[in-house]
TrEMBL record:
Belongs to the plant dirigent protein family. Homodimer. GO terms for cellular component: apoplast. InterPro entries: Allene_oxi_cyc_Dirigent, Dirigent. The keyword Protease does not apply. It is found in: Secreted, Extracellular space, Apoplast. Dirigent proteins impart stereoselectivity on the phenoxy radical-coupling reaction, yielding optically active lignans from two molecules of coniferyl alcohol in the biosynthesis of lignans, flavonolignans, and alkaloids and thus plays a central role in plant secondary metabolism. This is Dirigent protein.
Length: 176
């Protein structure tokens, strides 16, 4: 009998949450993330140095297994520096490949949207970024505002990469 009560309570809680959130919708957003760790105003900074060695990233300087960077990257509607601001990508990434020719970083970031219909909403994004792959897929694991209880994925491509500075193209697909 106790198990039956738990199931009923869980179903009631689910229904209450679903009712509070409303009907689920699909959303697609396209934007560019400007990740710069060099120059006078970097948007990504090393906060911990790794001790290992690892695959060298094409053209990058002094990146190794365990390096941890914190980022506050601009999100824009185009790849150029003068493109319209859409928000910020705030979080961290860690060089997670210790050997071989497949460099990857663990990414954990919040996509903060600061304009348009989703202004003030966030998406929580996490996953493995195999930086040399043509297209990488990360998970949308949650969100706030219009994206409360979100789930989905991000397709990431490199638009440009010079040294340790990159512009990444993001296609975000969300259900919330």
């Amino acid at each position: 009998m106790a198990a039956s009560s738990v199931v009923s309570l869980s179903s009631a809680a689910r229904d209450a949450i679903h009712g509070a959130v409303g009907a689920e919708e699909s959303h697609h957003m396209h934007m560019y993330m400007h990740d710069f760790s060099t120059g006078p105003n970097p948007s990504a900074v090393v906060v911990a140095r790794g001790t290992g060695t690892g695959p060298t990233l094409r053209g990058s300087v002094d990146r190794r297994f365990g390096d941890t960077l914190v980022m506050d990257d601009a999100l824009t509607d185009g790849p150029g520096p003068a493109s319209r601001a859409l928000g910020r990508a705030q979080g961290f990434y860690v060089a997670a490949s210790s050997a071989g020719g497949d460099p990857a970083v663990l990414v954990s970031m919040n996509v903060l949207l600061t304009s348009g219909p989703y202004n003030g909403s966030t998406l929580a994004v996490s996953g493995r970024n195999a930086v040399l792959a043509q297209v990488r897929e990360l998970s949308v694991v949650g969100g706030t505002g219009r994206f409360r209880m979100a789930r989905g994925y991000v397709l990431m491509k490199t638009a440009s990469w010079i040294g340790n500075d990159a512009v990444l193209e993001l296609d975000i697909f969300v259900h919330a």
